[in-house]
Amino acid sequence: MELSLLLEYGWVLIILILLEGLLSADNALVLAIMAKHLPEEQQKKAINIGLLLAFIFRIGAIFIISYLFHVWQVQAIGAAYLIFIALKHILKRNHGEKEKKGKSYRMTVAQIALADIAFAVDSILAAVALVIALPDTPIGEIGGMDGAKFIVIIIGAIAGLIVIRFAAGFFVKLLTKRPSLETAAMLLVGWVGVKLLMHTLAHPAVHIISHDFVEGPIWNTIFWSVMLLIALGGWFLSKEKTKESQVE
């Protein structure tokens, strides 16, 4: 492979790893919210299973990417689900209802799996959109695409999973230390659902919103600005759990 081609692929790989890191932060937050109510030993197990599922879904998505371009319903279901759980949590808090702690471990894993499918589709579609313009190489085809492009996407996906692993554990600890931060976290989950909804509406089969707008700087600036405002507002308005409440 020529040096210029290696440099071009290397630059795109760096961008993809950063992109996957940002996208995986969403995934990690949702995973942490879903696993938080479980006992500590089950939290780690659920997160690890979530990582395994995320990896399987991402690899599978790469192999059937040409089919996924036509299946906008997966992202639509994921968007609806994330918005639903966010609204459900916020409405319960507003009505003074306590969160149920009896949700089963299997149900939690099933919810994580559903969210992971939606995030896998979103992540891989973004990755393919980034590498598709790269020139082909003599490596040959893997999974219906140029082998080098396939390898770049795989490396990006693995980088994203590493981010999820560390970020999810951090979010669980943070939410345990500051329970009142959970409302802000659920607002973030709902906002991530809005992002998936925007991608669904921009899908070629739906085409209610321009794809260029959803992938462009204006929407991305709006999305990350709102994410930052919610995170900062939640942090400054939340209270750290006291030792007395921990004992109780």
TrEMBL record:
UniProt membrane topology term: Multi-pass membrane protein
What highest taxon heads this organism's lineage? Bacteria
Chief location of this protein within or outside the cell: membrane
Subcellular locations according to the entry: Membrane
* Keywords from the UniProt entry: Membrane, Transmembrane, Transmembrane helix
Q: Which Pfam families match?
A: TerC (PF03741)
Query: Which InterPro entries does this one have?
Result: CHP03716_TM_YkoY, Integral_membrane_TerC
Q: What are the transmembrane regions?
A: 12-34, 46-68, 74-91, 112-134, 150-172, 184-206, 218-237
- NCBIfam families membership: R_switched_YkoY
- Homology family: Belongs to the TerC family.
Q: Which PANTHER family match?
A: MEMBRANE BOUND PREDICTED REDOX MODULATOR, SLL1022 PROTEIN
Q: What is this protein called?
A: TerC family protein
